[in-house]
Each structure stands twice: as structure tokens, then as C-alpha cells.
Specification:
With 391 residues, the chain is an alpha+beta fold. It has eleven helices and 18 strands.
Length: 391
């Protein structure tokens, strides 16, 4: 089946190459060829959809295995927890299901160990003594959404921040939003466990979960409310083989941005640009300001002119943070075959994978989430907005 998936991917690449070659021919009338080429494209898509349907499996068996994980963790901690599942018939690529087992196991154990309170503490807080962990799956905008929600105490943010300071992850006087504190849980080796147990405290933290999710081409987010619990949201592609992307130019290089991250595209004029601090810039969009992240600068690419071309992709992260990615040009939207960089090169900040375009060139598939996370302008904008709201 994997060989068939790869063959379909190569078929899509060959179609793109053939279309590119026909477009480059100095022929006045190529309508007949283009008609046949469109038929070729439709046939390739039909084969691809058929193969994907064969690979698609419901998450029910995976969810059923997770019930045992919760029972064992409950017994080990002396807590009483029940697992409630939803969307068990949601279908996902077989490989995604196989590689989801370890991340889900880790999150559920953490939910029991760190999230759900002891029965006596729950009773004192006016809760049922049995903690509830809800595991759900659903399709959302061409992706798969996995949620793990507990009704526990929520993230102990003062403790998380103190541990981060002790580990040197943040300066002592750092002003962080609740979301930024919560996301410190994904820092390498981070743990709030006071002692080593079979479930936690062994230096293997949530960073392992995040790496596994990003390795699947997905992203993970945490939200938490004190006394009410925490929710981990995992967004994954339906398949690991192909994706719809926007092809752009950045510093004379062709790159691809996942369509699922893009809200809209636009060309900005000088009167839409506003300064933020010494080096940051904001883009005014219908009266709202969003930070501008220069993709070339984020990737360390040299551009002959420092002046941006005024072409932007408005993207939104899973947490709702918006940012305008500055590129040099937008070419078109197309389906591309995802090629993993594992074993080819080390991790490249801001890059999720690669693909082969119709002209045979290799293009990087960008990771907007990590580009925004590393952007000083986006961070400065968030800080200024927090200070403004506080006043």
C-alpha cells in the first residue's frame, strides 16, 4: 500500500512536469493536448482518492486502547478517572493512527497524573470525585482534530513559570500571557513532577509529544482554565502524502505555504504599513493591525533589496494569532506531494517538509506556526497589546 501511495505521488509530480513542459512549448494551439492533460489530472486524482480511502481507518481501535491507559494511570496514582470518547468513527490515514498512539498515551497519563485532582480535593472543590477525561476526533477544514480535555485543576501557571525561570528558559522578570506560560510545557525536558514515578519526572516531557505531532505535519495547542481543566488540541492532515498549497517566491526561491493556514492573500500599499518599535512593522487590514513577518528574514535568506514587495499571506495559528507573512510573489495554488526531510537534513526552523514542483525543482514547504513563534515582531506586538489591554 505504501508503494502504491508513493506511485500515486510520483504520478502527480509527473503530471505537473508535463503541464510545465507543455506551457513552455512554442505552439499556438495546445487545446487538444490540454484537454487530454486535464483528463490525466482527473484520473490521477481519482486514483489518489481511491488509495486514500483504502488507507483511511476509524480511530475507534486507537481510542479503545487509550481506555486501558487511563485505567492503569488511575490505579498508579490512586485517583478515579473515566475516559469518555467521541467521534470514534472519524477516519484518518493509517500511518497517522499508528504514530498517534505514543503522543496520546503521554497526554492521557499527564492528564491523570497532573491534571485530575485526588478524590478528596475534587470533593472539596465541589466536583464529582471521579475525574473525567474526554477524547474526541472530528474532521475540520480538511484536517483531523483530536482533542483531549480533562476537568481537573488546570495548569498551575505560577509553578510552571517558576520552574521555567529556574531552568533558564525565561528571564526572571519576563511578562508572559497565560497562553505563553501554558506553552512552556512543550519546552525540552520540562516537567512539573516533584518526584520520579512510573508516569512522570523522568525528563521526558511534552516536547516529545510536540515533536511527534509536528513530525506528522500537524500542530498542537494547549488551553487551560484554573479549576476547570485543560484541553490539548491536535490538528493533523488527513493524509501524509499530499496537500494543497500556495506556491510563492521568497528571495529568488520557490516555496509552498499550506492552504489550511491561509486566511487570505493580498497586496499591500505603503499607507498600510505602520512601524512597531525600532525594526518591527504592522499591516493595517480593514482597520485591524497584524504583525508582519518577513519570510526571507525568518529563514535567513539573502534578498538583494531590503524593501519588501508588498505581497502578503494572512495566516492564522491554532491559537487564533494572526500574522502577515511577507513574500516576494504569489504564483498559484496547487496540490503537492509531501516529501519528508527526515534522514536528508536536520531540522530547519520554519520548514516542515519539501516537495518536487512541475519544473523538477525542489521547494520547501513552510511551517507558518514556527515562523510566527520565532518572530520578534509578533512577540513585540503581543506584548504591546497586553500592556494596552491592562491599561
Amino acid at each position: 500500500m505504501d508503494r502504491l501511495i508513493n506511485a500515486v505521488g510520483e504520478l502527480i509530480i509527473n503530471h505537473s512536469m508535463l503541464a510545465q513542459q507543455i506551457a513552455n512549448l512554442n505552439v499556438s494551439d495546445t487545446r487538444d493536448v490540454e484537454t487530454e492533460l486535464e483528463g490525466f489530472k482527473n484520473l490521477a486524482r481519482d486514483i489518489q482518492e481511491g488509495v486514500m480511502a483504502i488507507r483511511a481507518q476509524p480511530v475507534k481501535p486507537l481510542f479503545q486502547r487509550m481506555a486501558r491507559i487511563v485505567r492503569e494511570a488511575s490505579a498508579a496514582t490512586g485517583k478515579t478517572c473515566k475516559l469518555v470518547t467521541e467521534g470514534e468513527n472519524t477516519e484518518v490515514d493509517k500511518t497517522v493512527i499508528e504514530r498517534l498512539s505514543d503522543p496520546l498515551t503521554h497526554i492521557l497519563r499527564n492528564a491523570v497524573d497532573h491534571g485530575v485532582e485526588k478524590p478528596e480535593d475534587r470533593a472539596a472543590a465541589g466536583k464529582q470525585t471521579t475525574g473525567e477525561i474526554r477524547l474526541s476526533a472530528s474532521h475540520r477544514s480538511g484536517s483531523v482534530c483530536i482533542e483531549i480535555r480533562d476537568d481537573g485543576a488546570g495548569v498551575n501557571r505560577p509553578r510552571v513559570k517558576q520552574i521555567a525561570i529556574e531552568k533558564g528558559l525565561i528571564p526572571e522578570n519576563a511578562e508572559l500571557t497565560d497562553g505563553e506560560i501554558d506553552n512552556l510545557l512543550f519546552a525540552p525536558g520540562f516537567s512539573t513532577a516533584k518526584e520520579i514515578s512510573n508516569l512522570s519526572g523522568r525528563g521526558v516531557g511534552m516536547d516529545v509529544v510536540k515533536n511527534a505531532v509536528t513530525g506528522l505535519g500537524g500542530r498542537i495547542n494547549i488551553s487551560s482554565a484554573p479549576g476547570k481543566g485543560s484541553t490539548f488540541t491536535i490538528i493533523l492532515p488527513l493524509t501524509l502524502a499530499v496537500m494543497d498549497g500556495m506556491v510563492v517566491s521568497v528571495a529568488d526561491q520557490t516555496m509552498v505555504v499550506p492552504i489550511t493556514s491561509i486566511v487570505e492573500t493580498m497586496r499591500g500599499s505603503d499607507d498600510m504599513i505602520n512601524s512597531l518599535g525600532a525594526d518591527g512593522t504592522l499591516l493595517s487590514i480593514r482597520g485591524n493591525f497584524v504583525p508582519i513577518c518577513d519570510v526571507a528574514g525568518a529563514l535567513g535568506l539573502y534578498r538583494e533589496s531590503d524593501r519588501q514587495a508588498g505581497v502578503y499571506l494572512l495566516v492564522e495559528t491554532e491559537t487564533g494569532q494572526r500574522c502577515a507573512l511577507a513574500v516576494d510573489d504569489i504564483h498559484d495554488q496547487r496540490q503537492v506531494v509531501i516529501k519528508s526531510l527526515d534522514g536528508v537534513c536536520g531540522e530547519i526552523p520554519g520548514v516542515a517538509a519539501a516537495t518536487i514542483l512541475g519544473d523538477g525543482k525542489i521547494a520547501m514547504i513552510l511551517d507558518p506556526e514556527s515562523i510566527i513563534a520565532a518572530s520578534p515582531t509578533a512577540a513585540a506586538f503581543d506584548t504591546e497589546r497586553r500592556l494596552s489591554n491592562a491599561s
